Automatic annotation (TrEMBL):
The keyword Nucleus does not apply. This is Adenylate kinase 4, mitochondrial. Belongs to the adenylate kinase family. It comes from the Eukaryota. Pfam families: ADK, ADK_lid. GO terms for molecular function: kinase activity. It catalyses: GTP + AMP = GDP + ADP. SUPFAM superfamilies: Microbial and mitochondrial ADK, insert 'zinc finger' domain, P-loop containing nucleoside triphosphate hydrolases. It comes from Xenotaenia resolanae. PROSITE patterns: ADENYLATE_KINASE. InterPro entries: Adenyl_kin_sub (IPR006259), Adenylat/UMP-CMP_kin (IPR000850), Adenylat_kinase_CS (IPR033690), Adenylate_kinase_lid-dom (IPR007862), ADK_active_lid_dom_sf (IPR036193), P-loop_NTPase (IPR027417).
Amino acid sequence: MAKFFRAAVLGPPGSGKGTICKRIAHSFGLQYLSSGHFLREGIAADTEAGVLAKSYIERGMLVPDQVMTRLMLPKLEQLRNHSWLLDGFPRTLAQAQALNNLYQMDLVINLNIPYETLKERLSDRWIHPASGRVYNMGFNPPQVQGKDDVTGEPLIQHDDDKPEALMARLRHYKEVAKPVIDLY
């Protein structure tokens, strides 16, 4: 039986997880699996987990562990005969334990980025909500200010990417990520 490679990249918001994961996955022929993509897909398809996730997101709340695992684990089961790299999952100890019940991770990379860098990146970050494409006004701006390069639709800046919300967001990330980092 072939050995499949299972890995995840952890890091705070704005650390570049998505960019790094895409590059690693492409370079090594891994399936790139983004929790954000699966969230958007589940919401668009009106799946039970997607509807639940949407109800939390619309209220500005984090999607609970049981909803995230209901969304992610079936996708991972479908890809059991593939090597993959996770972006944005697991975020909490409960998610990591649920993942570990299915798979042994071969590698977990933790991105440690200085606060000032995160603050700068997030305050300049704009997102295309439907696709999750991310733009940074400092180093990866859209071709047309405020518009997605692919669809031309408006970009948004999440309230929690604004400097006034950033400190609380990073503090929360540290609290939930430490046990996950310790586990791996």
